[in-house]
UniProtKB/TrEMBL annotation:
Name recorded for this polypeptide: Histidinol dehydrogenase
Cofactor info, note text: Binds 1 zinc ion per subunit.
Keyword set, alphabetical order: Amino-acid biosynthesis, Histidine biosynthesis, Metal-binding, NAD, Oxidoreductase, Zinc
Pathway: Amino-acid biosynthesis; L-histidine biosynthesis; L-histidine from 5-phospho-alpha-D-ribose 1-diphosphate: step 9/9
Originating organism: Vulcanibacillus modesticaldus
Cofactor(s), names only, from the UniProt record: Zn(2+)
UniProt xrefs under InterPro entries: Ald_DH/histidinol_DH, Histidinol_DH_CS, Histidinol_DH_monofunct, Hstdl_DH
Any Gene Ontology biological process: L-histidine biosynthetic process
Active-site residue numbers: E324, H325
Organismal lineage: Bacteria, Bacillati, Bacillota, Bacilli, Bacillales
Similarity field: Belongs to the histidinol dehydrogenase family.
Gene designation per UniProt: hisD
Broad enzyme group: oxidoreductase
The organism's place on the tree of life at top rank: Bacteria
């Protein structure tokens, strides 16, 4: 079911997991480029053709009506609605702390430097549909944008075969402040947001997860618009010592494996006894779950229990892998977390399982995957803000530093730059 290995004898399993996203996607890229070109040229007509082809439904009007949203509010389980509202409060409370302001630095009376902070005016959010239609994704992407002050939030999501959107998705969008929702998905939806169509406005940035076609489409349109990240398959890494609960560990590994067949679930422990107990628990728990076929394939291909020499080696490997989700199930998780350099989100202690972060705690669940946590961060308010530098020099201030600017410009061979400063003082020569 799952690879059990030791770091001192075999590192191949780690290398396999770390390179699982390094796959050649030539055929996928060809299809994506064809779709994007068609949407750019034929706009709504192309969207209707692809929606019929891929989603097997005819859509005349892509815009979700207020009547459909009202119906979703009437249909949704009230307990679920309350849960979404409570999650919204937590997400807002956490992300409001991230909001930054413009600032100004005055150097005497003659120089003013500053940074202006403004929200992106129009943002597109992609929300997967079908079996992967997650209202939590709506909240995690729309709420930071709203806090940042984005003027218009456009959401796209694939319709079901009945031409409708899942009730919880519509309710989440409404409570998060999404302005318009369109029934379109896939690479064609990304093209619509990037280029604009008769129905769907062009946006300045696209955020949100999707399948490989969506990910490659986002990569292709990057430059026409901004994007948040190219998300790879989901992953969890657990650092555990002999004190950890094998039943909890198995459940957490499985919870990530059920996402898809390429999801990675890894346990690092210096306890062989714990490793053996986890293997036993995995076998017991998987059999009881609905998505056991996907779980088994994921665990077989990209699951691993790695027995390390000690806790320090576990920490070293975790930093090397830079996982999307990192759980620390040790006697003193707060001592371990001080040594973690690379991770998307960290969960401390046996009662902080990863799903709490996915749905409710407040920190964003849109996280860097495939070792990109070494250089990137979770989605946040900052992703929806632009910063503009501000410079003011009086004549006296410029006169005081003009020779320095001229010297640097001349050294770089940019004499017109130097002249731009010189010309302002010609009457004084």
């Amino acid at each position: 079911m799952i690879n059990v290995t030791e770091t001192k004898t075999d590192m191949d399993v780690i290398n396999k997991i770390m390179s699982r996203n390094q796959i050649e996607f030539e055929e996928i890229n060809r299809i994506v480029e064809e779709i994007l070109a068609n949407v750019k040229k034929n706009r709504d007509d192309a969207l209707r053709d692809y929606t019929l082809k891929f989603d097997r439904v005819e859509i005349e009007n892509f815009l979700v009506s207020q009547a459909e949203i009202d119906e979703a509010f009437n249909n949704i389980d009230q307990g679920l609605k309350e849960a979404l509202l409570n999650a919204k409060k937590n997400i807002e409370k956490y992300h409001e702390k991230q909001l930054i302001q413009s600032y100004y630095l005055k150097e005497g009376k003659d120089i003013i430097l500053g940074r202006l902070v403004n929200p992106i005016e129009k943002v597109g959010i992609y929300v997967p549909g079908g079996s992967a239609a997650y209202p939590s994704t709506v909240l995690m992407n729309a709420i930071p944008a709203k806090i940042a002050g984005v003027e218009e939030i456009i959401m796209i999501t694939p319709p079901g075969k009945d031409g409708k959107i899942k009730d919880s998705i519509l309710v989440a969008a409404a409570i998060a402040g999404v302005d318009k929702i369109f029934k379109v998905g896939g690479a064609q939806g990304i093209g619509a947001l990037a280029f604009g169509t008769e129905s769907i406005p062009k946006v300045s940035k696209i955020v949100g997860p999707g399948n490989i076609y969506v990910a490659m489409a986002k990569k292709r349109v990057s430059g026409y618009v901004g994007i948040d990240m190219i998300a790879g398959p989901s992953e969890i890494l657990i650092i555990a010592d002999e004190m950890a609960n094998a039943k909890f560990i198995a459940a957490d590994l499985i919870s990530q494996a059920e996402h898809d067949e390429m999801a990675a679930s890894i346990l690092l422990t210096d306890s062989r006894n714990l490793a053996e107990k986890v293997v036993e628990e995995l076998a017991k728990q998987v059999e009881k779950l609905e998505r056991k076929e996907i779980i088994n394939k994921s665990l077989n291909n990209y699951g691993a229990i790695i027995i390390t020499s000690n806790l320090e080696e576990s920490i070293e490997i975790a930093n090397q892998i830079a996982p999307e989700h990192l759980e620390i199930l040790t006697e003193d998780p707060f001592a371990v977390v001080e040594k973690i350099k690379n991770a998307g989100a960290i969960f401390l202690g046996e009662f902080s399982p990863e799903p709490v972060g996915d749905y409710f705690a407040g920190p964003n669940h849109t996280l860097p995957t495939s070792s990109t946590a070494k250089f990137s961060s979770p989605l946040g308010v900052d992703d929806f803000l632009k910063k503009t530098s501000l410079i003011y020099y009086s004549k006296e201030a410029l006169k005081g530093i003009k020779e320095s600017v001229i010297q640097i410009a001349n050294d770089e061979g940019l004499t017109a730059h130097a002249n731009s400063v010189k010309i302002r003082f010609e009457e004084e020569v």
